[in-house]
Amino acid sequence: MSAAGSLSVDQIKLGRRHLVTPEGVDLQIELADVGSRIGAFAIDLIIMIVVLIAAGFGLSSMSIYNGELAFTIFVLIAFLLRSFYFTLFEMGRRAATPGKMLMKIRVAARGKARLSAASVFARNALREIGFFLPIGFLFGIGQGGVDGWISLLVSIWAGIFLMFPLFNRDRLRVGDLVAGTWVVKSPRPILAADLITTDAPEVEAAFAKFAFTPAQIDMYGIKELHVLEDVLRARDREVMTDVATRIRTKIGWTWEEGESDATFLRAYYAALRGRLESKMLMGVRRKDKFDRR
């Protein structure tokens, strides 16, 4: 199924996409806007520059005794930073660099496959070709004669890579297109609209006291999410009490006097849905509580 196959024109313009898993879970994907991506990249560049400045200060004392060695180490640090900064962070659990985390966006696989190391490497290798090499080349050549024409061609080359996300509806840069990735807004643990709009404001506010740990949320999978959703829709008090008791026992939750079973179940549903959506963006789908992925 196409990522945007069932969306309206307005939804496509707003950057919303559907990813329906084989289990029937509809992931509401919202693409990161261009401003967020530029902001994240700028933050990461600033971090890299600060690290290089700090390295330069640290090596300044060494340069007094062995200037060539200090320069070699500095160049090596710059190379490693430029080559592996983005790749290592995006291969992590959050699939995001510090800049992306601050802008609340992350890298995700476009299809149903897992976000792999190969995909992350490919998207960042294209950044090297499309941004860092042309920028380095421009700073290293003159501005007259033949060099001026070369500078113009390199500028056009870099411009094509930089402006590419503005000319496709999924805001993909060339690296995303090759690697099968896209950059999306980080998912939030949100209840389905029809399960939350009927609640009183004080019930919604009560969600804040339920701070489930990742281990507690990971006790269940997609199958149990559907069952829990059916229970919440049915609104049978006896059933909700029974299910809430089972979940509390399973996850080791300490029941507090006056704690509403319905509020507990809605809070756990929100946390479980958010956790599963976050994992599915990385290509990890836990079918049920017996699936240990």
Automatic annotation (TrEMBL):
<protein>
    <recommendedName>
        <fullName>RDD domain-containing protein</fullName>
    </recommendedName>
</protein>
<feature type="transmembrane region" description="Helical">
    <location>
        <begin position="125"/>
        <end position="142"/>
    </location>
</feature>
<dbReference type="InterPro" id="IPR010432">
    <property type="entry name" value="RDD"/>
</dbReference>
<keyword id="KW-0472">Membrane</keyword>
<keyword id="KW-1133">Transmembrane helix</keyword>
<keyword id="KW-0812">Transmembrane</keyword>
<feature type="domain" description="RDD">
    <location>
        <begin position="32"/>
        <end position="180"/>
    </location>
</feature>
<dbReference type="Pfam" id="PF06271">
    <property type="entry name" value="RDD"/>
</dbReference>
<feature type="transmembrane region" description="Helical">
    <location>
        <begin position="38"/>
        <end position="57"/>
    </location>
</feature>
<feature type="transmembrane region" description="Helical">
    <location>
        <begin position="69"/>
        <end position="88"/>
    </location>
</feature>
<feature type="transmembrane region" description="Helical">
    <location>
        <begin position="148"/>
        <end position="167"/>
    </location>
</feature>
<dbReference type="GO" id="GO:0016020">
    <property type="term" value="C:membrane"/>
</dbReference>
